[in-house]
Structures are given as C-alpha cells and as structure tokens.
Design a protein that fits this description.
By secondary structure, the protein is mainly β. It has one domain: Sandwich (Jelly Rolls), CATH 2.60.120.200. Helices cover 4% and strands 45% of the residues. Strands 1, 3, 4, 6, 11, 12, 13 and 15 form an 8-stranded antiparallel beta sheet that branches. The protein has a 7-stranded antiparallel beta sheet with strand order 2-5-14-7-8-9-10, with no helix packed on it. A hairpin with a 2-residue loop joins strand 11 and strand 12. The longest helix has 9 residues.
Length: 237
Amino acid sequence: MIPTLQLGQLGRAIAGAFDPFFSSVLALLHFDNTAAPQTFIDVVGGTWSLGSAPFNGVTQNTTAPLFGDASALFDSQDLIRKSIAVPSLDGDYTIEFAHKSDGTSASGGQVVVTIDNAGSSFITLQVEPRSGGVQFRVRRDNGTTFEGPSVAATGTSPTQWNRFRYTQGSGTGYLFINGVMLGSFALTLSIADGTTLTIGGNQTVAAGFRIDELRVTAGQCRSTVDYVVDAAPFPDA
C-alpha cells in the first residue's frame, strides 16, 4: 500500500530540499494539519498550546494558503505558545514567516512572534497592515520600547501573502519584507535565555491575520542583504 501524504508533505518530499542550518532550528511550522485544525505540528518537536479562553480560537484553515494544505488563522487576541529553552537573544538569530492580513488599519499592529524570558523581558515582531503598504518592526521589553526603525514595503498590499524575515548578527538587526532588506540598526537588546515562543496575542488592530511557513533559527544570521524568498515550503531536514 502506498502511504498517504497531505499535499504539503508531498511537495516537500518531492522537492528534496535541505537546510544547512536545520540543526539550529527551534521551531518550524507548516500549518497543514487539516485533520486536527487546532493541533499544531512542529517539525522539530515540542507542543504548541492554545491560549486560555477566549484567546483560543486559532485554527488551521484551508482557504488560500501560501503553500500546502492550510494556513493558521488568528483573530483578535488569539495565540499559541511553545515552552522551550530559547538561547540568549544577544546572539545571532533568524525569525521568518509568511503573513496575510484580513484587513488594514491606520494605526496599531498585529503581533506575530514573541520570545520572552519568564514573562518579563520580550522581543516581539509586529506587522502593521497599512492601506499604503505593509510595515514591519521590532518591539522589546513587553512592547514598551521599539528597537530600530519601522520599515515599509510601499504599495505592497497587506491583504496578500508577504514574506517577513528578521535577522540579527554581530550586533546588528536586519528587517526584510519579500526578500528586500529595508532597514538595519545597532542592537540594544539584552534579554537572557527565553522560556516561551508565542505566535499571536496582543493585537492592537481589529483585523485578523493568517500565518504560513514559520521558522525560528538560533545561532544563525541567515541573511544581511537582499535574498530570493523560498518558492516552496521550508525544508524539513
């Protein structure tokens, strides 16, 4: 009998892609588990838990994902969390994901990824879905301070799929939208080893959003200049 594969899994198997930094990946989600829409499979292991009610509505939805079978739909303050020993944020890092907003807003933002240290020190990646173009920025210390600039891909609709990457290396942070490096800044982050990865939560706009293909890599700054975004899901090895 030929084993059954979901479309997303089959595409990755055919592609045969290989990530040279895979051993440093802390989280890798394709959001393709349509059989159990509120069970989130992390390729590198660990358990993602839904937020407490009423912030537990995250689901994997088959409507127009970027790749594979589905993407994750976040409404309001919905979130999922994974407890993990996250290395110090003073070192090299790469956090990347695909994002699509369900609407635009003149102010506020959609919190996508947060790494925190026992609920005190935070680094947060925030997407701001403006009508004139999508914006991207880094917050720290539970959102009270912005780290570096807010960068914008002018004329790029936030209601279509866009690719985001934040990297840091050698004391500098870099912000990318759709493979283009739009801003860099000297890091002032000083956050000890983290304990939790969070996706979603703390939205300050009404529109929900979708996430597909999320990857967090510790100890590796994957890019400091423009790069070509992946044309297929992130590899599983």
